[in-house]
Write a structure and sequence with these properties.
Elements lengths: L1 H10 L28 H17 L4 H10 L3 H16 L8 H35 L5
């Protein structure tokens, strides 16, 4: 009789396993250091390597900017600190997304490079024009 009592008690109750909250441990990602030298190729190499590492380790969007700025050294760290301060002074929101950081870095490193290249070309052109121009004695 006791077994039929236990069976009838258990029929109305179904055990449901409550799912455990799984916290996925975030993988440590070591990014190459970035020194912020005025060399477009060094910057682009760094950016491509960082993109590869982010994709390989499936880095979440909210971790990308903090990880990237941890890799800044020397001039790059100074540039970042200055940029953050200027944004606060102008009440601009902080940079939170990788694409926004990349845009700021590209403005700094690629436009500077092309500006310098254009100035060099202009100077060479002026020198050639000066050499070919007849001089008055």
């Amino acid at each position: 009789m006791e077994s039929s009592f236990n069976e009838s008690m258990n029929q109305g109750y179904h055990y449901q396993h409550t799912p455990r909250k799984t916290t996925s441990r975030e993988v440590k990602v070591d990014l190459p250091q970035f020194f912020g030298k005025d060399d477009m190729e060094l910057y682009l190499d760094w950016e491509m390597k960082v993109e590869q590492l982010f994709a390989c380790h499936k880095v979440s969007e909210e971790r990308k900017v903090p990880l990237a700025i941890l890799s800044f050294q020397g001039h790059a760290m100074y540039w970042w600190t200055t940029l953050e301060r200027e944004r606060r002074l102008h009440n601009d929101p902080p940079i939170q997304y990788w694409n926004d950081l990349k845009s700021a870095l590209r403005r700094r490193h690629i436009l500077t490079y092309y500006g310098r290249e254009l100035m060099n070309k202009l100077q060479r052109l002026q020198q050639r024009m000066w050499k070919t121009r007849p001089h008055k004695s």
